[in-house]
Amino acid sequence: MLSPHDGGREVSVIGRPDADWGEAVGAYVVGAAHPKELDALCLARIARCKRPKDYVFVDALPKNNYGKILKTDLRTLEGTSVSKRSEKGTA
After folding, report:
1. What's the pTM?
2. Burial of 77 (0-12, 13-18, 19+ CB in 10 A)
3. Tens digit of pLDDT for each residue in 8-37?
4. HEC profile for 57-83?
5. What is the DSSP letter of 46?
6. Which domain holds residue 82?
7. 1 within a domain of the structure (yes/no)
8. Which of 42, 53, 63, 75 has the highest local Cβ count within 10 Å?
């Protein structure tokens, strides 16, 4: 649901461990969208429980030779991308 936003060229979501829920949605975004705008877009189109808890802005998503996004590599980035994480604001 984040793809229609003008500022997000590519987006991928993964489930991350969460102490309260067991697993939470995290979104990796290539582009210059603002987290509040992305959150508002999600609120308008999907259920609250399905929207990302935070957005991580990266230069490129890891892909294989066929162009498929490597979600296992995104999970590896999870521990190293804290400085790029932008917590979502309330919409």
Report:
1. 0.74
2. middle
3. 578 899 998 888 888 889 999 888 888 898
4. ECCCCCECCCCCECHHHHHHHCCCCHH
5. S
6. 8-87
7. no
8. 42
